[in-house]
Structure formats: C-alpha cells, structure tokens
Amino acid sequence: MVKKLRWGCLSTARFALREFLPAISACQYAELSAIASRDLARAREAAAQLGIPKAYGSYEELLADPEIDVVYNPLPNHMHLEWTVRAAEAGKHVLCEKPIALSVAEVDEMIAARDRYSVKIGEAFMVHTHPQWVRARELVRAGALGELRAVTGFFSYYNRDPHNIRNIAEAGGGGLYDIGCYPIHLSRFLFGEEPVRVAGILERDPDFDIDRLTSAILEYPSGQCTWTVSTQLVPYQRMQAFGTKARLEVEIPFNAPKDRPARIFIDEGGDLKGTTIRVEEFPVCDQYTIEVDAFSKAVLENTEPPVPLEDARKNMAVIEAVFRAGRSGKWEMV
C-alpha cells in the first residue's frame, strides 16, 4: 500500500478552497487531514465543504498536531515567512505559495530554518510540473527550436477591489509579486540559466500604491525575455519561446485547464500564415494534484522538491532587480 502524507492547510483562502485543496483528493501520495483558520467557524465550514477530518481555530493548533506531516501555506504574501518558519520549527514540511517571500533576505531565513530543522520547503509553482511545461523544456533542450534566443510572456486580469489582498501594498500585493513571478520562473526554466541584468517599468495604482502594469526585459547569457503583467487589464495569458529554427507557444501557460486537454503549438516557420504549425495535446489533468504528489514524493524519498528554496531565492533576486529597475529607470544587475 502506498504511504500517504497527511497535509494540513493554513487558512481558508478562496484559491485554496476552490482550486488547490480539492485536487488533493486525487493524489497518490497525499491526503488532506486538517485545515486551520483564525475563525473556527470558517475552518469548520471549509472542513464540512471538502470533507476534511479536522478543523482548527488557530494556525498554532494545526502546527501542534503530531499527525500532520506537511503544511500548505497559502497565506497572504507578507505572512509566508513567519508561518513557513514556524511550521518548520514544528517539524513540518512546507509547500508555500508563490511568491514564497517578499525579499531574498526572507528566503535566506527560510533556508536557515529548513536546514536547522531538517525539513523540506518548496515554492508552489504548479507550472513547473505540468506536462505541457515539462514537454516545452524537453523540446528546447532537444534543440527542436534551434538555439533558444527569446521568450515572451503576457499575464493579466482585472481587479480593483480595495479589500482584495492583491491590492494591499503592505501585504505584498501588486502585479509583479502576484503574476510577474511566472514569466520570470518559466523563462529561467526554459533557458536553464539565470538572467544577468534587467530593465523594468512599473505603473502604480494611485489609490492602492501597488504596481498595476509592469513590463520587464531580462537579459540572459543566451538571449532575452520580455514580459508584461497587469492587475487591471482584460484577462489574458500566453507565453512563447523563439529559437533560430522554430517557435513554441503555450496556449494557457499559467491557469492550465483541468476540464480539457492543454495544448502547445510548434511553428517551424515555413511561412507567416501558420500553415506549418503543429499542435501537441496533453491528457486532461489537474496541475495541483501533480504538484502535491511531486512534493510529497520528494518528502517520502528524501529528494529535492520540484522548486527548492535555492531556486526560489534566484527567482526572488530577479523580482527584486525588476523593482529596483522600476525605481531607477536603469538596467539593474541581478
């Protein structure tokens, strides 16, 4: 019989309840055992809704439960450090939502806690283990695009709710933290190297002081990545990779559907009318189920999680550089 790790969730965040936690029911190596909220009634309501055995009225109670092996941390960005470290202190492995922290210094504190308490801590980039992205990198590495020279990305949604955590600057809100982290992570994933310097421009919301429209150029040793993200534009997402021989496009790169096949397009550039484009489809899957199983398997086999803290630190270093470039109006070294 396959051993299943017992997972507990800190908070009743909407995303966790709607997307992440239901996906655990299909996992091979994980089961959802507990949920905690600072409001016991909310925790009990969520537990009843999802069939979770235990509900706690504080995060501390969940961390004190000896029957919890792994903690999922989807708390607001500014709370990631405190509760990830506290979970590690309690001997729990942690999968923390992206962005895992608000600075490189905070990631360093997590690394110290991980090493001190001998636990696994990973950043929850579900895209990292989705079959469409595994295949995209495989094609790049195999030379199917020729030499990879450019990656482009766009990710946007519209949200001006003043009470939404993404619009609260003190909580780590804004487009760069929330969604800019994706094209950064995935361009690093495809190039297989780290950007040297970045240029960036950030437009801030006059009421919330969060970046609502952010664009950046990342200079890699092998090429360039350009991307734009926005929290106040028509919802859209797309990423493309351009090589000397072919182009690869990921149709729905971040919120990959779980009700229909995901698709990527490979264009060998025979003409500009798209007649040489071929499509690869991937069987219907839930990327959060894959993510949880991959992290659980790493814990069970004592291997590196898909996105370890060292990788998270490198991503955060790029985010910090884009913020600096936005302030200085100049290229900033990573």
Structural description of this entry:
Helix 5 (104-117) packs antiparallel against helix 9 (309-328), helix 6 packs across helix 7 (175-191) and helix 7 packs across helix 9 (309-328). The model has no long low-confidence stretch (mean pLDDT 97). This protein is 34% helix and 28% strand. 46% of the residues are buried. It has two domains: 5-124, 3-Layer(aba) Sandwich (Rossmann fold), CATH 3.40.50; 128-285 and 316-333, 2-Layer Sandwich (Dihydrodipicolinate Reductase, domain 2). The strands form two sheets. A nine-stranded mixed sheet has the order 14-13-12-11-7-10-9-8-15. The protein is of the alpha/beta class and 334 residues long. The termini are far apart. The protein contains nine helices and 15 strands. Strand 2 (30-36), helix 2 and strand 3 form a beta-alpha-beta unit.
Helix content: 25-40%
CATH architecture label of the largest domain: 2-Layer Sandwich
- Please tell me the total number of domains: 2
Q: Please give the largest β-sheet.
A: 9 strands, mixed
Chain-averaged pLDDT: 97
> Which residues form runs of ≥5 with pLDDT under 50?
none
Secondary-structure content class: alpha/beta
**Succession of helices and strands:** EHEHEHEHEHEHEHEEEEEEEHHE
Query: Mind telling me the C-alpha Rg?
Result: 20 Å
Shape: globular
The CATH homologous superfamily of the largest domain is named Dihydrodipicolinate Reductase, domain 2
CATH class of the largest domain: Alpha Beta
Strand order of the largest sheet: 14-13-12-11-7-10-9-8-15
Share of β-strand residues: 25-35%
Please, how many helices? Answer: 9
- Distance N terminus to C terminus? 47 Å
CATH fold field value of the largest domain = Dihydrodipicolinate Reductase, domain 2
